[in-house]
Amino acid sequence: MRALPLIASSDLKFTFREPLDSLPFFNPDIEEAGPPASIERWRAEIRDHAALVICSPEYAHGVPGVLKNALDWLVGGVEIVGKPVAVIQTSLPSTTAHASLVEILSVMGARVVPDASVGVPLRGLRLDEHGIASDPDLAPVLRAAMTALMASASLSQAPSATTSNP
Hints:
Elements: H1 4-7, H2 28-33, H3 37-47, E1 52-55, H4 65-72, E2 84-88, H5 96-107, E3 111-112, H6 129-134, H7 138-157
Parallel strand pairs: 1-2, 2-3
């Protein structure tokens, strides 16, 4: 994730959020009573950005609980609906969590951008963000993904991209 600002167009601005483990466990009773300030901040962060990039490891063939919990706090809201999302997979050949995450986001109404959702084989490589950004195989894939995400975000904000109910 830290390599993305180094390789993406300077038109893109990246915000890295605090760790998701600071969010409380999702509880519909808390939701109904009024979510805590940390949840309101999380929702505002999602709402206030034109697009999202999610990169998550796979644990036991699934999405890590902390990420699923954070996404659960967005269910029922409008923050992620129609939002372009890139899902970057770095744990190749593990694919179960990636497919599950794409499904979860799609059910929530997010718009997972296929050309922005890529796999980059980082397992076993000992590269920091600068090493990834300068790698001749990895950097072009990530650069193309961010270009696709930026194009998708631009389209979703254009008046011609709005739709009406039939």
